[in-house]
Structures
1.
Amino acid sequence: MHLDFLGSLTRTHMCGDLRPADAGEDVVLMGWVNRRRDHGNLIFLDLRDRSGITQVVLDKEHAPAAHLKAEAARPEFVVAVTGKVRERGEGLNNPKMDTGDIEVLGHQLLLLNDAKTPPFSPAEDAIANEEVRLKYRYLDLRRKEMQDNFKLRSEVAMAIRNYLVGENFLEIETPFMTRSTPEGARDYLVPSRVHPGHFYALPQSPQIFKQILMISGFDRYFQIARCFRDEDLRADRQPEFTQIDLETTFPQQATIFRIVEGFLTAAFATAGVTLSSPFVQMTYDEAIRRYGIDKPDMRLPALVDLTDTLTPELRMTLKIEQSLPVLGIKIPNAGQLSGTQTRALQDEIREVFGDCGLDFLNVARLKTNENFAPLATAIESEMEGSDPHITAEKRGGPRLAPGNLLVVITPKLGTPEKWNHDPHWIYKKVGVLRLALARKFADKHKLFERTGTANDYKFLWVTDFPMYEWDDDAKTWQAAHHPFTSPHEDDITSGRLVSDKGAVRALAYDIVLNGTELGSGSIRIHRKDVQQEIFRSLGMSDEEAKARFGFFLDALDYGTPPHGGIALGLDRIVMILAGAQSLREVIAFPKTAKAIDLMVDAPTPVSDQQLRDLSLRTVTRT
Ligand code: ASP
């Protein structure tokens, strides 16, 4: 194959630029052959670059040399075309293409590079095999969908930067090679060659550094920061991911909320979505009691608390535990279920609950019994009427849509004692079922479907998280957030840090979108005595605290202002805005769920020499 040199040729337009107004103009386009159609004397090349596609015609009579080269061109060849823009003429235009009213009549064609037949065509919309896509990522990224995702990502990041800089934030970089930051995952370690047996850790987040930047008086810091977490393999996690990380001095929670709402509004505006703020706020306790989860999906109706609808007498007859709540789940528009469907649904509910002590009340059966019919009616009207979210139903459908599925969950008599340490357990269990049912009937209620408006995005702040979580395996209290999170001031003064850990609330908050946690943050501890107390209350001795965080405790000694911040996952925000199903669609070079980069083939073993340099030896685990 004879390839041409570029010489001094420069392109005049991008492939997506030309319109009928450009007719008659001489242009130079460069790009990839998206498709080629050979009609004998006429060869059509669809020329593609980031901006779009232009049809180029090579006419044997008009430009025989160019036509000859076009005969050799194949998909994904890189070419340069010199030619004249012309309108396509009646009936020949393609309304599906932005450039569909024009074409370029080629005078000269340069074949700048050839291409092997690709394993899949970047011109195709959907490619089934993700492994092949990841292995040939450079081809995958040529696809329009991917190009659009990364354009969006760049614009979103820029909008956020601009907003934060406008709010007096400084972008400051923090190190990748550092020491462990406790965010609850394992560290990725980097062995030091010059200090044998010593390791750097890649940051799980810039947490400690950003707090130190507040001690240093920078007042407002942000960073679009890469974080590294060696987590157990989970479908939608990436070992390295990007956070919009920020910290500010002297904030109230409301200060942070306003900043985040501001930059999210700017980010969503780049995708044409106008958000309205302030976002809804809810305490952790309320989120659990109303939605059964600390990241409620507000597109769905809340749980209905039917506890008071069931009198003690009725409970006795129906063998329902007296002291625990009775909760209803409503799935709108699920439609009428057949007998078989109902039985399958009941099996599914039993499966979700296992033997945890929860059961469901068969409201339909109650209705047929004279004694219980009034109860059934009361339950139905309570559940149909008490839902504030249904009135705001995005499609403006009827308030009481027929075919709502109502499921009532009751605790059996003698429900296991083991749950007693967590008064939220019943809500959480029912919350899981609520989501499972919502997913199951998604085709029917359509509440997860995108309409392209701000209604698709239900944001919410969840506040007042518990400070500690009981770890049943280790039989200890763990920090629910990271250990730099401040408890409520009155929980410190009242002594609850010691006397009643389970009741201590943290000044921690999450931002939730459509049932996904987008980010979390907190007001931090700024006093050394409190920080030491928290370390102790987490079972860390003063010596251990000094060994791990001595530098930080030292810094707290030198005039640390009250400060607080948050971090939001950029990848996830872009994924949601792009309507993508996986983080891998919005990370240019992602890893698989097994933490492998299929393109560069990492991780790999390294040479013995490299290991020797690092004073390392690998052993095979038995
Ligand atoms: N460092 C925390 C995280 O990565 C966020 C924060 O508290 O600002 O989740």
Note: The mean pLDDT is 92.
2.
Amino acid sequence: MKLILLGAPGAGKGTQATLIKEAYAIPHISTGDIFRANIKGGTELGRLAKNYIDKGELVPDSVVIDIVKDRLMEADCANGFILDGFPRTVAQADALATFTDIDAVINLVVDSDVIIRRIAGRRMCACGETYNTATLKGSEICAKCGGKLYQREDDREETVKNRLAVYEKETAPLIAYYRDKKLLIDIDCNGRTISETDKNINKALSKV
Ligand code: ADP
Ligand code: ZN
């Protein structure tokens, strides 16, 4: 199963990708996670990416395309993968089509007021868990590992506004792009819990 997850920042791509990855035993490839790991590790790629990410801008296409191309050549991608955060521009989608085919594109549909609320409340743990202040009830500690929660630097309000504008301009056109190719599956996430959305995705994927 070769999948792409589309959706605005904060739509829940990372959360749903983790569930799909477990159900289908395929790797979850998140370009955002790759960049964050490189920033943390102090690599040259990390230093380059940070300049863009902190402003809510996109990392240049040429950089991202090479990273994904290399990653998809690794052995664990032979039976499928789930791409989260890539492609994010039409140029990235065109490049992707030259090195792999895709079985389905899942588009997570969420209203913009919900998105803004979710990102503002998003809290992370170094172990990889994600939380929201709406359910944390004031706790600042990870329930899984006891680590101290923090806010992603690019989740701050000024940066979020720019990320949403960049999404509308650069990434939203991919909805029509993949609809034209008959690959798009819209999943309405409004008013749905994480597990309801997971069920809806699985139902849709069982027909692919
Ligand atoms: P979100 O989906 O919540 O915006 P991500 O973790 O996917 O967050 O991405 C964080 C940032 O990493 C983006 O705002 C962007 O700067 C950079 N990034 C991630 N994926 C790509 C990509 N495919 N192309 C360009 N930049 C990217
Ligand atoms: Zn943790």
Note: The chain has a mean pLDDT of 95.
